[in-house]
Amino acid sequence: MDIVKRPDPPSGLRRALWRLPIHLYRVGLGRLLGGRVMLLTHVGRLSGKPRHAVIEVVEHDARGYVAASGFGPRADWYRNITKTPDVVLHVGGRISPAVARPLPAKEGGDIMARYAPRHPAAARRLCAIMGFAVDGSVEDYREVGRHIPFVRFVPRVTS
Q1: Burial class (CB in 10 A: 0-12, 13-18, 19+), 104
Q2: pTM, full prediction
Q3: Which residues contact 66 (CB under 8 A, 6 or more apart)?
Q4: Which of 45, 68, 78, 114 fits a 20 to 30 Å CA distance from 146?
């Protein structure tokens, strides 16, 4: 695994295109995106206002949903959830309150090593977008996962 160039978070037109799925959720069509894409509603660290990001679900199990910050720790949504971890997830047609918990680098590596064989084309594309050159081996993907911040969104029990 080589780090070719870590990209900056998208801006301008590129940012607008990345955010298009938010509009699908806003008009009630989020379920068309399936269970691999979620709308994350979080609190802006500076404004204190609700913010939205659409991110890929890398894993989902009884412990919650896992997502990666493909643009690293500089991504706005990642910086926001590290300040205020209480969030709301919209996955398909379900809405769930959750708490965001950043994961250790080793666990991120293990997650990426499981993800890549299940979604090889997506894993290659994501690595290219994130600035990593990989040889396709599980160990290369594991090393990439150690460099990407992963977050587990743990369901919050509501009364």
Answers
A1: exposed
A2: 0.86
A3: 57, 58, 59, 60, 103, 111, 150, 151, 152, 153
A4: 45
- Residue 64 neighbours by CB under 8 Å, 6+ apart: 98, 152, 153, 154, 155
- Is residue 151 classed as helix, strand or coil in its secondary structure? strand
Q: Of all helices (H) and strands (E), which one includes residue 130? A: helix 120-130
**Amino acid identity, position 59:** E
Distance between CA atoms of 126 and 98, rounded to whole angstroms? 25
Q: Indicate the helix (H) or strand (E) that contains 89.
A: strand 86-91
- What would the two tokens of residue 27 be? 């008009």
Token representation of residue 105? 């680098």
Q: Give the distance from CA 78 to its chain's centroid.
A: 9
Summarize the confidence of residues 4-15 as an average pLDDT. 74
**Which one has a higher pLDDT value, 54 or 35?**
54
d(CA 17, CA 144): 25
Longest dimension (CA), the chain: 48
